[in-house]
Specification:
The chain is α+β, with helices and mostly antiparallel strands. It has four helices and twelve strands, in the order βββββαββββββαβαα. A six-stranded antiparallel beta barrel has the order 1-2-5-4-3-6.
Length: 212
């Protein structure tokens, strides 16, 4: 689990392709302290397992499914990525709970300024629109952000200067692709409601009364 609070910006140092996978070597500094092989690392929203640790970098291997469902397959040498190590049970929850399992990718529709804030607008796939609510949490490239406006086919977030400086959002341009992870609990609620509509769910008002 992660919180969406980025700890460091890493840089893609090398990419090597396998039969149906890619090994990504990521240059980093402070996040390497105490890092061990087998640990989980959130890379721009994608949970990956560390397979090698070097003096100034670490390596993960993204499999076919990960490359298909996220933007990791689009990365190039020199690109910068957001990094966050896995949450400890004793840590403060500065953002919101994230699994690092990407729901979809989408593109940036527009970037504008509003005072000191940067307003990012992202396309919203229709089949995921029920999972986004105004003032709700959403993870964009692993960054915990708040939805400021929900539109018919898009949503916006307001990014403060600190977040812009501390994440790879400062590198992003219109039409760039980003990874989205929707609210952890919202996905379960949506699933329960869908099963109820289809008559598959056992969770009814009467069932809940019996469990109280």
């Amino acid at each position: 689990m992660f919180t969406g609070v980025i700890q460091e910006i890493g840089e893609i140092k090398n990419i090597s392709s396998g039969v149906e996978s890619k090994k990504l070597e990521i240059k980093a500094r402070k996040i390497l302290s105490g890092l061990q092989i087998g640990e989980s690392m959130n890379i721009s929203g994608v949970c990956q397992t560390v397979v090698q640790v070097k003096p100034d970098s670490f390596v993960v291997e993204a499999i076919k499914e990960t490359l298909k469902r996220s933007s990791l397959g689009l990365l190039k040498k020199g690109d910068r990525v957001n990094l966050e190590r896995a949450l400890k049970l004793s840590d403060r929850l500065g953002g919101h709970l994230l699994s690092g399992h990407i729901d979809c990718t989408t593109e940036i529709k527009s970037i504008s300024s509003d005072g000191n804030s940067s307003i990012f607008e992202f396309s919203l796939p229709p089949d995921h629109s029920a999972l986004v609510v105004e003032k709700g949490s959403i993870a964009v490239d692993g960054i915990s952000l708040t939805v400021t406006e929900l539109k018919k086919s898009s949503f916006t977030v307001a990014v403060i200067p600190f977040t812009l400086q501390m994440t790879n959002l400062r590198d992003k341009r219109v039409k760039d692709m980003v990874n989205l992870e929707f609210d952890f609990f919202g996905k379960y609620v949506k699933r329960i409601l869908e099963e109820k509509e289809n008559g598959k769910s056992k969770i009814t008002e009467e069932w809940l009364r019996q469990k109280l």
